[in-house]
Write a structure and sequence with these properties.
Elements lengths: L12 E5 L1 H8 L7 E5 L3 H6 L3 E2 L6 E3 L6 E4 L1 E5 L7 E5 L5 H6 L9 E2 L5 E2 L4 H7 L1 E2 L11 H13 L5 E2 L1 H13 L7 H12 L4 H10 L3 H4 L7 H10 L12 H10 L4 H11 L3 H17 L6 H10 L9 H9 L3 H14 L4 H6 L4 H21 L2
Parallel strand pairs: 2-5, 10-11
Antiparallel strand pairs: 1-2, 1-8, 3-4, 4-5, 6-7, 8-9
Helix pairs in contact: 5-7, 5-8, 7-11, 10-11, 11-13, 12-13, 13-14, 13-15, 14-18, 15-16, 16-18
Family: Belongs to the tRNA nucleotidyltransferase/poly(A) polymerase family.
Pfam family, one: PolyA_pol_RNAbd
Organism: Billgrantia sulfidoxydans
Length: about 375
């Protein structure tokens, strides 16, 4: 149902805004459509059947399409960080005023329901020139925009997009102002996780580093410049057959696999990382340590399998062996052969033989080691 033929919006001044407008002009698929309503009140929206969902400003869900309709608003800086704003939403706020609060010109375009472009800040021109440019000096009022700009570059860099020089300067100003330290961990991680799903996530981290933002946000990544560059290169080298859902997690694991347990833990705590990211980062680090050994033996391989909890989580083993294969295919073949053999040993067989309790655990470990010795020696 188009807004032009929608009874719920009949008589309202509505505009399609944001990513749907931008990506349609790039020829990209648009999953979600957001709308701005000019000249309306919350009471009027609810009379038309819209359901209010906005906590900090008036946003409503369409009664049938469930698309988001936000009342036009302005924002004024009143504190630190992403949430330090006073929001003003009223019927007298114009579309141009609403668009002026957005981060980049390519995100500050609107369309009428009939498809007519409203572009007061030159977004179409910057889109054609492949430039990410801030809308106004108010860019510096929201430190999250540093991360968002870096993320958009990670998405569009392969199309030839660049960040405007004056926008980079403002990103550097925000990085040195101390404002980034007021961002809550969840917001930093949300942008970072999105960036890990973009076409070129290394661009995100490199851009943040170049403007000085990684030092306050993720200092463990940039303690050593050469190690940081090697970590960025690893983002493009992942095990095969990963789903789109799995890819961000594996990219993060490759980014942090060289960090010590203590540094990984500090970074995870600072960003409030989900457990699945923490766990895979640690597993990748253990796998890296195994891969870097000249000739890992049965005790080394068993310690690795114990460390990644392979006996209870056997699905972890094949992708980690595939990770080894990227740099050490010979070792990966040996690990795969050893794993196939040792994984066939089941605890219930030993129980049937009369082993129980601690004795069962010791015998299971002994036999697993014996199998690994045999398989890794090639006998």
């Amino acid at each position: 149902m188009s807004a032009a033929r929608d009874r719920s919006t009949e008589g309202l001044e509505v505009y399609r805004v944001g990513g749907a407008v931008r990506d349609a002009r790039l020829g990209w698929p648009t999953a979600d459509t957001d709308w701005v309503v000019v000249g309306a009140t919350p009471a009027e929206m609810q009379r038309r059947g819209f359901r209010p969902v906005g906590r900090d400003f008036p946003v409503f869900l369409h009664p049938e399409t469930h698309e988001e309709y936000a009342l036009a608003r302005t924002e004024r800086k009143s504190g630190h960080g992403y949430t330090g704003f006073e929001v003003h939403a009223s019927p007298d706020v114009t579309l141009e005023e609403d668009l002026a609060r957005r981060d980049l010109t390519i995100n500050a375009m609107a369309e009428t329901p009939e498809g007519e472009l409203v572009d007061p800040y030159g977004g179409q021109q910057d889109l054609s020139a492949k430039v990410l440019r801030h809308v106004s000096p108010a860019f510096v009022e929201d430190p999250l925009r540093v991360l968002r700009t870096a993320r958009f570059l990670a998405r569009y860099a392969r199309l030839g997009f660049v960040i405007a020089g004056e926008t980079r300067a403002l990103m550097g100003e925000l990085a040195t102002s101390g404002e980034l330290t007021h961002l809550v961990a969840e917001r930093v991680w949300t942008e970072t996780e999105k960036a890990l799903a973009e076409a070129d996530p290394a661009v995100y981290f490199r851009t943040l580093h170049e403007c000085g933002a990684l030092t306050p946000l993720m200092p463990e990544l940039v303690e050593e410049e050469a190690a940081f560059e090697r970590a960025l290169a690893r983002l493009a080298r992942l095990p095969g057959d990963l789903s789109e859902e799995e890819r961000p997690r594996w990219r993060w694991a490759r980014l942090v696999e060289h960090l010590s347990d203590a540094r990984q833990a500090a970074l995870a705590e600072r960003l409030r990382l989900p457990r699945r990211y923490r766990d895979l980062g640690r597993q990748a680090a253990l796998t890296r340590q195994l891969r870097q050994q000249a000739a890992p033996g049965a005790d080394d391989v068993k310690a690795w399998l114990d460390g990644i909890d392979a006996w209870r989580r056997d699905e972890r083993v094949p992708p980690l062996i595939a990770l080894v294969a990227l740099d050490a295919p010979g070792l990966a073949e040996r690990l795969a052969r050893a794993w196939r053999a040792v994984s066939q040993l089941e605890a219930r067989r030993l129980v049937a033989e009369g082993f129980h309790g601690g004795e069962l655990g010791r015998e299971l470990a002994r036999r697993r080691r014996a199998i690994l010795v045999r398989e890794l020696s090639g006998d």
